[in-house]
Amino acid sequence: MDGDIGDFLRSRRARIQPEEVGLPSYGRRRVPGLRREEVAQLAGVSVDYYVRLEQGRGPSVSDAVLDAVARVLRLDGAEHDYLRAVARPRRRDDDRPAASRVRPGVQLLLDGMDRNPAYVLDHRMDVLGWNALADALLDFGGTGAAERNIPRRVFLDPAARDLYPHWAEIAAQTVAHLRLQAGHHPGDAATAELVAELSRASEDFRRLWADHLVNPCDHGVKHLHHPVAGLLTLPYETLTIPGAPDQTIVAYAPEAGSETAERLALLGSWATSHAD
Question: Which long-range contacts (CB under 8 A, 24 or more apart) does 34-37 make?
């Protein structure tokens, strides 16, 4: 997917100035940040070895080298994880099709979370299952399967900018999570097609994808402005499903007794009354 490792490492080199790592800076540089030979020097590898790594020709690269490069480029935990994934991509025969449905037991778990909107995502951020409160909040049941994809909703649905008061933050988080997942599934044609579709249709997506941000988005707080429930502040947590490592439960958990919890309860009652 568009020369992931080379573009990623170049973007991270560009963030660091030579003087920040104790190197002299002589004259004008053609590109910002560290040069390849400077990263190689600081990481303790040959320039040729590092060049081959940036070119994606280092499938046998060791953990020690990747750790050294991560240290030099000051990668955070998610970036380090992504570097390992794209430096040593899985064999194509390891990229088996992910399950497209949630297990019945998982759906029962979702349904039992009657005070918490919860849904299941796969690695492409397709929504595979949800409970009633999540449906009332995000209207998964009222859309087709193709539209039940978080990146498509964020970037292609005009209503997303009204739903998310902090849309720019949500957009950046969505792309960062999708890129991280794409790095772990290099042979997934559907992910590549999704990225290509969004790149054609959305200038915002193209710009954010080019930034090479990576982030698991495994917990945090989202702000939603629902047309019925109003403004909601929703802390969320994610849980990987045992036996289905490509599936993740996303559950919103507002504090008991908070205004958001009360509004969600009213939303649930409203949705139930309108379903009858």
Answer: 34/72, 34/73
pLDDT tens, residue by residue, 216-260:
999 999 999 999 999 999 999 999 999 999 999 999 999 999 999
What SS3 state is found at 78?
A: helix
Coil vs helix vs strand at 183: helix
Which residues have C-beta within 8 Å of that of residue 212, sequence separation ≥ 6? 7, 8, 11, 12, 179
Closest CA to 99 of 73, 81, 118, 126: 126
* CA angle at 106 for the pair 173 and 268, rounded to the nearest 5°: 70
> What is the tens place of the pLDDT at every residue in 82-114?
999 999 887 654 555 566 789 999 999 999 999
Assigned token pair, 91 = 């064999």
